[in-house]
């Protein structure tokens, strides 16, 4: 595994270094003051350095590192989601429970690999109990809207996100002790797909995919991004239990889900009248702006691996 | 109470302010939006909407270390002066300036106390609604203090600061905060126009502060 990790880290460093050099050259050649696109590009690349560094640190702390890192990501994402939606004073205890009980408990289930409860705790128990508590408070104003937003908040930012560290609990024969690499594979292809879609969209984008939801997404960006991300998946098959063809297919499905996640996130933001979820990551917006694709891809990737590769 | 001698922060006050600012960031990710004014060590009166005990913590978390050490929140003496512990928290830890709204003796005159702070070159955080807003209205009518201070010390900048979301983080009667993102929007300075009446000025300052709210509640 050491060998695989070294190759991945060197690869990522090479990509980031190239990106920083290209951005620096573009900035040096461009007329001053720099356009907002170039400023944003530089900010984004710098933020990537920080994110890759954080992921690498968490990686070396193994299961502890990953579980804690993704619990914190859930916290940041949930905070952004709840801030954006309508809440009422009488929701206070439900909201506190989302942060104080649901996040720790869900990640404790990940930690103890209690699969049976992990998959139903939020979609069954929280689904039923949260609206019950809200109803007990007796405040019926915009009731359905409030409970629906609460459900969505925990499903997206806790349940879906927790599927990333849950990959560590899968028993893939012949792949023992290397599950961290599944996380690396998922994150690299999904985030890579976002970046590649952005690049292909900027270079060749003409036909808008969905003008009403997200004007920046184009067919050219989507196809170019998905095809190249699938190729990237095939290239990375050496760190996975998949064959190159299988890796390409899995990457294709994960990245397609990631694209849909970005689309849904855009629709929610548009509905709520904001451009970004928050301001945690300079140049990118909030945590949800960076993880919307991962959120949709993680559960599907988890279940594909669990169904086809575990015993 | 009238003989306020202000020094820069004691160790305890520095530790409290650093600790609370860090806590505010962890819970609310607070960040300033400078929308019409800029950070400066000029002498200022920051006036803000008031819905929770956490308001001034959020506001001072947005100031630099240097400004924080000379900026004092004005708090109600009836509440914070009630017991030794409360007075210790308010004065020795938070370095607030306590004023009594129902004052009788001349040395308790709130305006005089606040002016004495300004005359030592320090800045103030003032909540001109006079009390925490527990109603459904976004902002209560202003009391006169802001006008009186500005008339007496026209060189001190009055900066409107809209504190977002604190009423959701810590609603009425609750003591555990829900982590929600908060921003503090700092607007352009407000000044009393020549010949402007007290009420007209207060209403204008009120409207200016209200207009800073970046996301007014949608009515749908």
Quaternary structure type:
heterodimer
User: How many β-strand runs of chain A?
Assistant: 2
Overall geometry of chain A: globular
Question: How many domains is the backbone of chain B divided into?
Answer: 1
Q: How many structural domains are formed by the residues of chain A?
A: 2
Number of helices of chain A: 11
Q: How far is it from the N-terminal to the C-terminal residue of chain B, by CA?
A: 49 Å
Care to count the β-strands of chain B?
7
SSE pattern of chain A: HHHHHHHHEEHHH
Organism (chain A): Mesorhizobium qingshengii
Pfam families (chain A): CTP_transf_1
Protein name (chain A): Phosphatidate cytidylyltransferase
GO molecular function, one term (chain A): nucleotidyltransferase activity
Keywords:
heterodimer; A: 311 residues; mainly alpha; 2 domains; two-stranded antiparallel ribbon; 11 helices; globular; B: 220 residues; alpha/beta; seven-stranded mixed β-sheet; 9 helices; 7 strands; 35% helix
What does this structure look like?
The complex is a heterodimer of chains A (311) and B (220). Chain A has helices spanning 2-29, 36-60, 62-84, 92-112, 115-118, 121-136, 143-166, 180-204, 219-235, 244-272, 287-309; strands at 208-210, 214-218. Chain A is mainly alpha-helical and 311 residues long. Chain A has 2 domains: 1-60; 61-309, no CATH class. Chain A has a two-stranded antiparallel sheet. The longest helix of chain A is centred in the last third of the chain and has 29 residues, at 244-272. Chain A is globular. The two termini of chain A are 22 Å apart. Chain B has one domain. Chain B is 35% helix and 15% strand. A 7-stranded mixed beta sheet of chain B has the order 1-7-6-2-5-3-4, with helices on both faces.
